[in-house]
């Protein structure tokens, strides 16, 4: 499997480092990534993290924009100015910098969450709250869809 799946919580050590979950390191190794790109998520207090392919994906999207429009400039600012490279050390750890802490609220533990082609890092309590919101939205969507199908059967 070459996707980031599942989740884990790891403690930050006294030097500000945290171990990337072993399964995630396996995916990174299969893809040949030793350096990671982290981007502050736009709408949640998390970092999107992946290999150079994550940065490439964003840059391809920027390149598709008209360079004379504000959208291209805004996207470049977001991708290049709100991102950072994270180096995996020989033990599979990354340093949790102030740049990461300021956006996520991370203090002593990091929650890692698989998102398919990338993963996110969160402060664990914020992740639990967000997970509850996601489940509530999906449950409501399911109920709305079921009600629509039931109403369609009555006609």
Count of DSSP helices?
5
The largest pleated sheet is described as:
6 strands, antiparallel
Supply the CATH class: Alpha Beta
- What's the architecture, going by CATH? 3-Layer(aba) Sandwich
User: What pattern of helices and strands is seen along the backbone?
Assistant: EEHEEHHEEHEEH
Q: What's the N-to-C terminus distance? A: 46 Å
Q: What strand order characterises the main sheet?
A: 1-7-8-4-3-5
Task: List the domain count as a whole number.
Answer: 1
* Quaternary status: single chain
Q: Roughly what fraction of the amino acids lie in strands?
A: 15-25%
Approximate shape: globular
Structural class: alpha+beta
E-strand count: 8
* Low-confidence runs of at least 5 consecutive residues: none
């Amino acid at each position: 499997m070459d996707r980031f799946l599942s989740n884990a919580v790891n403690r930050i050590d006294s030097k500000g480092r945290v171990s990337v979950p072993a399964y995630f390191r396996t995916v990174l190794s299969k893809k040949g990534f030793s350096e990671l790109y982290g981007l502050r998520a736009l709408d949640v207090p998390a970092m999107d993290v992946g290999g150079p392919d994550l940065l490439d994906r964003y840059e391809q999207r920027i390149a598709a924009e008209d360079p004379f429009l504000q959208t291209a400039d805004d996207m470049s600012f977001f991708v290049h100015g709100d991102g950072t490279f994270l180096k995996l050390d020989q033990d599979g750890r990354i340093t949790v910098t102030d740049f990461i802490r300021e956006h996520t609220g991370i203090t002593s533990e990091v929650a890692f969450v698989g998102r398919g082609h990338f993963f996110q890092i969160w402060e664990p309590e914020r992740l639990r709250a967000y997970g509850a919101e996601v489940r509530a939205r999906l449950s409501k969507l399911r109920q709305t869809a079921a009600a629509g199908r039931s109403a369609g059967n009555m006609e």
